[in-house]
Amino acid sequence: MEAVIDIKVIKTEKSKLPGTSLENLPFGKVFTDHMLEVEYKDGQWQQPVIKPFGPISMLPTNATLHYGQTIFEGIKAYRTVSGEPYIFRPFDNFHRFNISAARMMMPEIPEELFIEGMRKLVEVDLDWIPNKPDHSLYIRPFMFATDEAIGVRPSSTYSFYILLSPTGPYYSKPCRIYVEEKYTRAAPGGIGFAKSGGNYASSLLAFAEAQAKGFDQVLWTDAFEHKYVQEMGTMNVFFIIGNTAITPNLEGSILEGVTRSTVITLLQEQGLKVEERPLHIDEIIAAHKAGTLKEAFGTGTAATITPIKELNYKGYEMLLDTDKWTISPEVKRRLDAIREGREADVHQWMFPVKG
Ligand code: COI
C-alpha cells in the first residue's frame, strides 16, 4: 500500500523504555511512549498526529460517557527470528472495525488512516516490541463519540486513537470455564458481532460471579434456551470431538475473531474437518461421557490459543487432560512459527512494519 496520508509526528523528549522491563509483562498495563490521535468533525477525518502518550481531555458532557458509543480492536505486532517487525492480519481487524462502526452509527475509518497510522506508530515505537516467546506488542485502536451533549442521538464528532502495549500472555495457564445460563451476552439483532465496549461492560457481572466460584471465564450460551454455546468473555471457542473441530457459527451474536479464522485455516491444513455450526451443550456432555471430547480451547488476539482444562455445566464437571493433547498445541506451534518467520507465511498474514 502506498502511503500518501500526512501524519504529523511529535516525539517525546524522554522515552520511558530504559526504565521499563519487557519481561513478564501483565496484559494491558504498560504502554509505549506514543499514541496516534485523529479527530472526526464536519463529516471528515482531520490530520492524524502521533504524539506522546498522555491524558485525553474532555467535558463531563462527553456523549460516550453517557451512552457508550465506542468501539475498539485488538491486533499484535511481532518480531521474526531475524528481527524484522510485522503486524499480524491488520486488514482483517480494519474490516471488522468498520463493521462495528456501522452498527454503532459511527463514521467508517479509511483503510489508509487505520493501516498506515498503525504501521507508522509501531515504527516510531519499534524498540518496544518484546523479543520473547508468547510476548508481543498489543495494538489497541479505538474510537469514541466526542459530542458534548446528553441528548440520545449519534454524535457528529469522534476521536480515533491507537495505543501500543507490550504484553505477555493473557492467560498463562489452562482455564476453568463456567457455562453461563443466567446472564446473556448477546441476542440476535443486538451488538454481539460488534467490538463495542458495552458488550464487555455487560459481561462483567457474570464474569465476577464465575470468578467467585473459582472459574477463569464464562462460556456464553444463546439468549433463548441457554443451551447453544457461543463464545467466552475474551475468546471464541473450539471443541475437538472425534476427528472434527467444531466452533459455533457466526449468526450475529458472536464476534468474528481473526484468530478464530486463522485457527480454522490451520486446523484444515492439519487435515481436520472443521464445522461452523450450532453446538448444543448436550452434544459436548455426550462427547465427554463417550471419551470423544478430545480438546477444547479458546482463541483470541489477546488470548492466542488457551486450553480449557475444565468445563462446568450446572455443577457437572468435564475435566480435560491438557497434557495429552496434540491438535491445538500443533496449531499454536505453527501459528508461533509463522509469526516468528520460521514457517512460510503462505496466506500473507504478516504485514511488514518497515515499508
Ligand atoms: C482481544 O483479544 O484483542 C480482545 O479484544 C479481547 C479482550 C482483551 C477484550
TrEMBL record:
- Pathway given in the UniProt record: Amino-acid biosynthesis; L-leucine biosynthesis; L-leucine from 3-methyl-2-oxobutanoate: step 4/4; Amino-acid biosynthesis; L-valine biosynthesis; L-valine from pyruvate: step 4/4; Amino-acid biosynthesis; L-isoleucine biosynthesis; L-isoleucine from 2-oxobutanoate: step 4/4
Catalytic activity entry: L-leucine + 2-oxoglutarate = 4-methyl-2-oxopentanoate + L-glutamate; L-isoleucine + 2-oxoglutarate = (S)-3-methyl-2-oxopentanoate + L-glutamate; L-valine + 2-oxoglutarate = 3-methyl-2-oxobutanoate + L-glutamate
Q: What class of enzyme is it?
A: transferase
* Source superkingdom: Bacteria
Which GO-annotated molecular functions does the record name? L-isoleucine-2-oxoglutarate transaminase activity; L-leucine-2-oxoglutarate transaminase activity; L-valine-2-oxoglutarate transaminase activity
A Pfam family assignment: Aminotran_4
Per the record's keyword annotation, is Electron transport included, yes or no? no
The catalytic activity of this protein is classed by the Enzyme Commission as: 2.6.1.42
List residues modified as N6-(pyridoxal phosphate)lysine: 195
Keyword hit for Amino-acid biosynthesis: yes
Q: Which UniProt keywords apply?
A: Amino-acid biosynthesis, Aminotransferase, Branched-chain amino acid biosynthesis, Pyridoxal phosphate, Transferase
GO biological process terms held by the UniProt record: isoleucine biosynthetic process; L-leucine biosynthetic process; L-valine biosynthetic process
CC cofactor: pyridoxal 5'-phosphate
Family under the similarity heading: Belongs to the class-IV pyridoxal-phosphate-dependent aminotransferase family.
Q: What does this protein do?
A: Acts on leucine, isoleucine and valine.
Q: What is this protein called?
A: Branched-chain-amino-acid aminotransferase
